[in-house]
């Protein structure tokens, strides 16, 4: 378990982590009515950079828009957001790479099950960048829990309450001796992991479920798709069957907290020869490099 670093952003200021609380009667607590994002900050001595900060902000805005949290667009813009990140990182002065979790909480007290016009508070905290899945080869289990469909709680919006779905599936995988789950939709098609996107390689083509497959439109997913296309790897976004994972040449996952990490087993079937494949390895390296320095795409933002 990771602890937040001592200084936390809440509302419009930095406070001590112990004082950064949200009320028990808020919709955030009552209904899990908050949306969030997590982005990495790379630390190299005094230089600190955030990866795709503007894209994370945009996704947070979009999550609010989908759910109807209208006060965020009224009160926040990218300039305010990035200034808060700069201040938070300066105050904590991390010496190693960290993750930042930024959340928009609906803090209205007992408003009932509605959202429009309700008061919000933004929180941001920093924690150690510890991956949530093994980086040298993970084992996955297809979940008995179905992914929440777009017309129930949309995966496209990163809603805190929706993560009960992820908790059920991840815990089932852990209880069964696996590292993480593969979520399937109601028709048995592959969606994603509990908190990462999934890719497979067949005959040299990179394949991943498209964004209308009840997945989060992951920022690292987009990154890997761009890098693969630049490297001349054919890329296809489409519906994926579970059994395609069983016979894939390579399987890997992407996410801020997952990295770009290989999968070596799915439901007791070894992926290919049980070793990370060449395309997974090459993209893992390209992705790791992009997190640190990137001149081509403008993905890296200096923080002060
Ligand atoms: N899917 C889910 C359900 C997630 O929670 C995450 C982590 N944010 C991802 C995919 C990967 O998204 P990203 O690359 O933006 O971290």
TrEMBL record:
<dbReference type="InterPro" id="IPR036038">
    <property type="entry name" value="Aminotransferase-like"/>
</dbReference>
<keyword id="KW-0032">Aminotransferase</keyword>
<protein>
    <submittedName>
        <fullName>Branched chain amino acid aminotransferase</fullName>
    </submittedName>
</protein>
<dbReference type="InterPro" id="IPR001544">
    <property type="entry name" value="Aminotrans_IV"/>
</dbReference>
<comment type="similarity">
    <text>Belongs to the class-IV pyridoxal-phosphate-dependent aminotransferase family.</text>
</comment>
<keyword id="KW-0808">Transferase</keyword>
<dbReference type="InterPro" id="IPR043132">
    <property type="entry name" value="BCAT-like_C"/>
</dbReference>
<dbReference type="InterPro" id="IPR050571">
    <property type="entry name" value="Class-IV_PLP-Dep_Aminotrnsfr"/>
</dbReference>
<dbReference type="Pfam" id="PF01063">
    <property type="entry name" value="Aminotran_4"/>
</dbReference>
<dbReference type="GO" id="GO:0008652">
    <property type="term" value="P:amino acid biosynthetic process"/>
</dbReference>
<dbReference type="InterPro" id="IPR043131">
    <property type="entry name" value="BCAT-like_N"/>
</dbReference>
<dbReference type="GO" id="GO:0046394">
    <property type="term" value="P:carboxylic acid biosynthetic process"/>
</dbReference>
<dbReference type="GO" id="GO:0008483">
    <property type="term" value="F:transaminase activity"/>
</dbReference>
<keyword id="KW-0663">Pyridoxal phosphate</keyword>
<dbReference type="InterPro" id="IPR018300">
    <property type="entry name" value="Aminotrans_IV_CS"/>
</dbReference>
